Amino acid sequence: MSKQPGYQNSGYKLFDAGFASFTQLSKGRLSEWPEVERKALYDTFRLGFDSLQDELEDARKNGKQVFIKEHALLLSGPDKFFSHVYGQDEVDALVLKERGAPDSSHTNPTSLPDSLLLSVRPIFQIRHPILMFPSMVRAEQKAYGLGAIRPRDPILAVTLTLRHSRALYDWYRSQAGDVHPQVIDADDIINDRDAVSHVCKAVGLSPDAVQYEWETREEMDPKRAVFLSTINASKGIIPGLAARGLDFELEKTKWKTEFGDEDGEDIAKFVLDAMPDYVYLLNERTYIST
Which InterPro entries does this UniProt record tie to the protein (predicted)? Predict the structure, then answer.
Protein backbone atom coordinates (compact mmCIF):
# COMPACT_ATOMS: atom_id res chain seq x y z
CA MET A 1 0.00 0.00 0.00
CA SER A 2 3.04 2.29 -0.06
CA LYS A 3 2.02 3.82 -3.40
CA GLN A 4 -1.43 4.99 -2.32
CA PRO A 5 -1.91 8.60 -3.49
CA GLY A 6 -2.34 11.10 -0.69
CA TYR A 7 -1.05 8.72 1.98
CA GLN A 8 2.15 8.25 3.92
CA ASN A 9 2.99 5.00 5.66
CA SER A 10 3.40 4.38 9.38
CA GLY A 11 4.65 0.95 10.26
CA TYR A 12 4.74 -0.86 13.59
CA LYS A 13 5.31 2.06 15.96
CA LEU A 14 4.36 -0.17 18.93
CA PHE A 15 6.56 -3.13 17.93
CA ASP A 16 9.41 -2.37 20.33
CA ALA A 17 7.03 -1.69 23.22
CA GLY A 18 5.20 -4.97 22.73
CA PHE A 19 8.29 -7.09 22.61
CA ALA A 20 9.79 -5.28 25.59
CA SER A 21 6.82 -6.68 27.50
CA PHE A 22 6.99 -10.17 25.98
CA THR A 23 10.64 -10.67 26.89
CA GLN A 24 9.99 -9.79 30.55
CA LEU A 25 6.83 -11.81 31.15
CA SER A 26 8.78 -14.40 33.13
CA LYS A 27 9.66 -11.79 35.82
CA GLY A 28 6.33 -12.25 37.58
CA ARG A 29 3.40 -9.99 38.40
CA LEU A 30 3.85 -6.31 37.67
CA SER A 31 2.72 -5.46 41.21
CA GLU A 32 5.84 -7.24 42.48
CA TRP A 33 8.20 -5.19 40.30
CA PRO A 34 10.09 -2.16 41.63
CA GLU A 35 8.13 0.96 40.72
CA VAL A 36 10.99 2.37 38.63
CA GLU A 37 11.13 -0.78 36.47
CA ARG A 38 7.37 -0.92 35.99
CA LYS A 39 7.32 2.76 34.97
CA ALA A 40 10.15 2.17 32.49
CA LEU A 41 8.17 -0.63 30.85
CA TYR A 42 5.04 1.50 30.66
CA ASP A 43 7.11 4.33 29.19
CA THR A 44 8.21 2.15 26.26
CA PHE A 45 4.56 1.95 25.23
CA ARG A 46 4.05 5.67 25.76
CA LEU A 47 7.06 6.40 23.55
CA GLY A 48 5.66 4.20 20.80
CA PHE A 49 2.32 5.97 21.04
CA ASP A 50 4.08 9.35 20.94
CA SER A 51 5.87 8.27 17.77
CA LEU A 52 2.54 7.32 16.21
CA GLN A 53 1.08 10.71 17.13
CA ASP A 54 4.14 12.42 15.64
CA GLU A 55 3.47 10.57 12.39
CA LEU A 56 -0.18 11.63 12.37
CA GLU A 57 0.73 15.27 13.01
CA ASP A 58 3.35 15.20 10.27
CA ALA A 59 0.81 13.82 7.81
CA ARG A 60 -1.67 16.55 8.68
CA LYS A 61 0.99 19.20 8.07
CA ASN A 62 1.72 17.59 4.69
CA GLY A 63 -1.95 17.47 3.77
CA LYS A 64 -1.92 13.68 3.73
CA GLN A 65 -3.55 10.76 5.47
CA VAL A 66 -1.68 7.89 7.14
CA PHE A 67 -1.77 4.20 6.33
CA ILE A 68 -1.03 2.62 9.72
CA LYS A 69 0.19 -0.96 9.99
CA GLU A 70 0.13 -2.64 13.40
CA HIS A 71 -0.66 -5.99 14.98
CA ALA A 72 -3.89 -5.89 17.01
CA LEU A 73 -1.98 -7.69 19.75
CA LEU A 74 0.50 -4.81 20.07
CA LEU A 75 -2.15 -2.18 20.67
CA SER A 76 -2.25 -3.40 24.28
CA GLY A 77 0.04 -2.11 27.02
CA PRO A 78 2.14 -4.21 29.41
CA ASP A 79 -0.58 -4.51 32.06
CA LYS A 80 -2.81 -6.42 29.66
CA PHE A 81 -0.11 -8.89 28.65
CA PHE A 82 0.88 -9.60 32.24
CA SER A 83 -2.72 -10.07 33.34
CA HIS A 84 -3.13 -12.60 30.53
CA VAL A 85 -0.32 -14.66 32.05
CA TYR A 86 -0.80 -14.06 35.79
CA GLY A 87 -4.44 -13.06 36.10
CA GLN A 88 -5.75 -9.72 37.32
CA ASP A 89 -3.17 -7.68 39.22
CA GLU A 90 -3.33 -4.64 41.46
CA VAL A 91 -1.57 -2.21 39.15
CA ASP A 92 -2.88 0.84 37.36
CA ALA A 93 -4.13 0.15 33.86
CA LEU A 94 -2.16 1.88 31.13
CA VAL A 95 -4.73 3.98 29.27
CA LEU A 96 -3.53 6.74 26.98
CA LYS A 97 -5.17 9.81 25.48
CA GLU A 98 -4.36 11.88 22.45
CA ARG A 99 -2.37 15.09 22.86
CA GLY A 100 -4.58 17.98 23.77
CA ALA A 101 -7.66 15.80 24.05
CA PRO A 102 -9.98 16.09 27.06
CA ASP A 103 -10.48 13.21 29.45
CA SER A 104 -13.05 10.76 28.16
CA SER A 105 -14.32 7.26 28.82
CA HIS A 106 -12.26 4.29 27.68
CA THR A 107 -14.36 1.42 26.32
CA ASN A 108 -12.13 -0.43 23.85
CA PRO A 109 -10.07 -3.56 24.67
CA THR A 110 -6.68 -1.99 23.83
CA SER A 111 -4.63 0.66 25.63
CA LEU A 112 -5.18 3.27 22.91
CA PRO A 113 -7.84 5.97 23.29
CA ASP A 114 -11.30 5.46 21.82
CA SER A 115 -10.96 8.77 19.98
CA LEU A 116 -7.96 7.58 17.98
CA LEU A 117 -9.44 4.19 17.13
CA LEU A 118 -12.68 5.80 15.99
CA SER A 119 -10.80 8.24 13.75
CA VAL A 120 -9.45 5.48 11.48
CA ARG A 121 -10.96 3.16 8.88
CA PRO A 122 -9.89 -0.23 10.25
CA ILE A 123 -8.90 -3.18 8.08
CA PHE A 124 -8.33 -6.51 9.84
CA GLN A 125 -6.00 -8.81 7.93
CA ILE A 126 -6.28 -12.34 9.28
CA ARG A 127 -4.33 -15.51 8.57
CA HIS A 128 -5.09 -19.14 9.32
CA PRO A 129 -3.42 -20.20 12.61
CA ILE A 130 -2.14 -23.37 10.91
CA LEU A 131 0.43 -21.14 9.17
CA MET A 132 0.51 -18.12 11.43
CA PHE A 133 1.42 -19.83 14.71
CA PRO A 134 4.37 -22.05 13.67
CA SER A 135 5.72 -19.05 11.75
CA MET A 136 5.50 -16.97 14.94
CA VAL A 137 7.37 -19.65 16.91
CA ARG A 138 10.19 -19.71 14.35
CA ALA A 139 10.43 -15.93 14.22
CA GLU A 140 10.52 -15.38 17.98
CA GLN A 141 13.09 -18.12 18.50
CA LYS A 142 15.33 -16.53 15.88
CA ALA A 143 14.70 -12.89 16.83
CA TYR A 144 15.73 -13.35 20.42
CA GLY A 145 18.36 -16.03 19.95
CA LEU A 146 16.30 -18.22 22.24
CA GLY A 147 16.46 -21.60 20.58
CA ALA A 148 15.12 -23.17 23.75
CA ILE A 149 12.03 -20.94 23.86
CA ARG A 150 8.90 -23.08 23.78
CA PRO A 151 5.29 -22.43 22.73
CA ARG A 152 4.13 -22.87 26.32
CA ASP A 153 6.55 -20.21 27.60
CA PRO A 154 4.88 -16.85 28.34
CA ILE A 155 6.86 -14.97 25.68
CA LEU A 156 5.27 -17.15 23.00
CA ALA A 157 2.01 -18.26 24.58
CA VAL A 158 0.76 -14.68 24.88
CA THR A 159 1.13 -14.19 21.10
CA LEU A 160 -0.43 -17.44 19.90
CA THR A 161 -4.01 -16.22 19.92
CA LEU A 162 -6.49 -14.27 17.82
CA ARG A 163 -8.54 -13.09 20.77
CA HIS A 164 -7.13 -9.55 20.50
CA SER A 165 -8.25 -9.20 16.89
CA ARG A 166 -11.70 -10.57 17.63
CA ALA A 167 -12.20 -8.38 20.70
CA LEU A 168 -11.20 -5.24 18.82
CA TYR A 169 -13.33 -6.17 15.82
CA ASP A 170 -16.36 -6.75 18.06
CA TRP A 171 -15.75 -3.41 19.77
CA TYR A 172 -15.78 -1.65 16.43
CA ARG A 173 -18.98 -3.43 15.46
CA SER A 174 -20.60 -2.24 18.70
CA GLN A 175 -19.91 1.42 17.97
CA ALA A 176 -22.47 3.72 16.43
CA GLY A 177 -21.41 5.99 13.60
CA ASP A 178 -19.61 5.66 10.30
CA VAL A 179 -16.72 3.37 11.30
CA HIS A 180 -17.18 0.00 9.62
CA PRO A 181 -14.35 -2.53 10.15
CA GLN A 182 -13.23 -4.48 7.08
CA VAL A 183 -11.85 -8.03 7.23
CA ILE A 184 -9.66 -9.70 4.62
CA ASP A 185 -8.00 -13.11 4.81
CA ALA A 186 -4.40 -13.70 3.73
CA ASP A 187 -5.54 -16.44 1.34
CA ASP A 188 -7.75 -13.94 -0.46
CA ILE A 189 -4.87 -11.48 -0.75
CA ILE A 190 -2.82 -14.25 -2.35
CA ASN A 191 -5.49 -15.71 -4.61
CA ASP A 192 -8.14 -13.10 -5.31
CA ARG A 193 -7.37 -9.54 -6.40
CA ASP A 194 -11.10 -8.79 -6.44
CA ALA A 195 -11.12 -9.18 -2.65
CA VAL A 196 -8.30 -6.65 -2.29
CA SER A 197 -10.02 -4.26 -4.69
CA HIS A 198 -13.31 -4.54 -2.82
CA VAL A 199 -11.73 -3.70 0.54
CA CYS A 200 -9.82 -0.77 -0.96
CA LYS A 201 -13.01 0.73 -2.34
CA ALA A 202 -14.77 0.22 1.00
CA VAL A 203 -12.23 2.40 2.83
CA GLY A 204 -11.43 4.93 0.13
CA LEU A 205 -8.12 3.50 -1.06
CA SER A 206 -7.22 3.18 -4.74
CA PRO A 207 -7.33 -0.40 -6.07
CA ASP A 208 -5.16 0.72 -8.98
CA ALA A 209 -2.37 1.77 -6.59
CA VAL A 210 -2.11 -1.64 -4.88
CA GLN A 211 1.29 -3.22 -5.45
CA TYR A 212 1.51 -6.89 -6.36
CA GLU A 213 5.22 -6.66 -7.19
CA TRP A 214 8.01 -4.76 -5.45
CA GLU A 215 11.75 -4.61 -4.97
CA THR A 216 13.50 -6.55 -2.23
CA ARG A 217 14.45 -4.44 0.74
CA GLU A 218 16.66 -4.55 3.81
CA GLU A 219 15.52 -3.93 7.38
CA MET A 220 18.30 -2.58 9.57
CA ASP A 221 16.74 -3.44 12.92
CA PRO A 222 17.74 -7.09 13.54
CA LYS A 223 14.57 -8.09 15.39
CA ARG A 224 12.22 -6.53 12.88
CA ALA A 225 14.28 -8.04 10.08
CA VAL A 226 13.37 -11.52 11.31
CA PHE A 227 9.63 -10.84 11.30
CA LEU A 228 9.77 -9.10 7.92
CA SER A 229 12.24 -11.52 6.32
CA THR A 230 9.77 -13.23 3.98
CA ILE A 231 8.22 -10.10 2.51
CA ASN A 232 11.52 -8.20 2.41
CA ALA A 233 13.22 -11.02 0.50
CA SER A 234 10.33 -11.41 -1.95
CA LYS A 235 9.49 -9.49 -5.11
CA GLY A 236 5.77 -10.17 -5.04
CA ILE A 237 2.99 -12.27 -3.57
CA ILE A 238 4.05 -15.88 -2.98
CA PRO A 239 1.20 -18.26 -4.02
CA GLY A 240 2.55 -21.22 -2.04
CA LEU A 241 1.91 -19.51 1.30
CA ALA A 242 -1.87 -19.98 1.22
CA ALA A 243 -3.48 -22.13 3.92
CA ARG A 244 -6.31 -23.47 1.79
CA GLY A 245 -6.11 -27.23 1.39
CA LEU A 246 -3.64 -27.86 4.22
CA ASP A 247 -4.31 -30.92 6.37
CA PHE A 248 -4.13 -30.31 10.13
CA GLU A 249 -2.82 -33.76 11.09
CA LEU A 250 -0.15 -33.64 8.39
CA GLU A 251 0.94 -30.18 9.52
CA LYS A 252 1.05 -31.35 13.14
CA THR A 253 3.37 -34.18 12.12
CA LYS A 254 5.64 -31.59 10.50
CA TRP A 255 5.63 -29.45 13.65
CA LYS A 256 6.58 -32.42 15.81
CA THR A 257 9.46 -33.20 13.46
CA GLU A 258 10.65 -29.58 13.45
CA PHE A 259 10.07 -28.60 17.09
CA GLY A 260 9.90 -31.93 18.92
CA ASP A 261 6.88 -34.01 19.91
CA GLU A 262 5.84 -32.00 22.96
CA ASP A 263 6.20 -28.57 21.38
CA GLY A 264 4.54 -29.78 18.20
CA GLU A 265 1.55 -30.90 20.25
CA ASP A 266 1.51 -27.53 22.02
CA ILE A 267 1.42 -25.66 18.70
CA ALA A 268 -1.42 -27.90 17.58
CA LYS A 269 -3.37 -27.07 20.74
CA PHE A 270 -2.87 -23.33 20.26
CA VAL A 271 -4.07 -23.66 16.65
CA LEU A 272 -7.20 -25.55 17.68
CA ASP A 273 -7.91 -23.11 20.51
CA ALA A 274 -7.68 -20.17 18.09
CA MET A 275 -9.89 -21.69 15.41
CA PRO A 276 -13.23 -20.38 16.78
CA ASP A 277 -11.89 -16.81 16.65
CA TYR A 278 -10.41 -17.36 13.19
CA VAL A 279 -13.59 -18.89 11.77
CA TYR A 280 -15.64 -16.10 13.32
CA LEU A 281 -13.51 -13.41 11.66
CA LEU A 282 -13.33 -15.39 8.42
CA ASN A 283 -17.11 -15.35 8.24
CA GLU A 284 -17.02 -11.57 8.75
CA ARG A 285 -14.91 -10.96 5.64
CA THR A 286 -15.86 -7.91 3.63
CA TYR A 287 -15.65 -9.89 0.40
CA ILE A 288 -16.03 -13.66 0.23
CA SER A 289 -14.36 -15.26 -2.76
CA THR A 290 -16.34 -17.76 -4.78
Answer: P-loop_NTPase
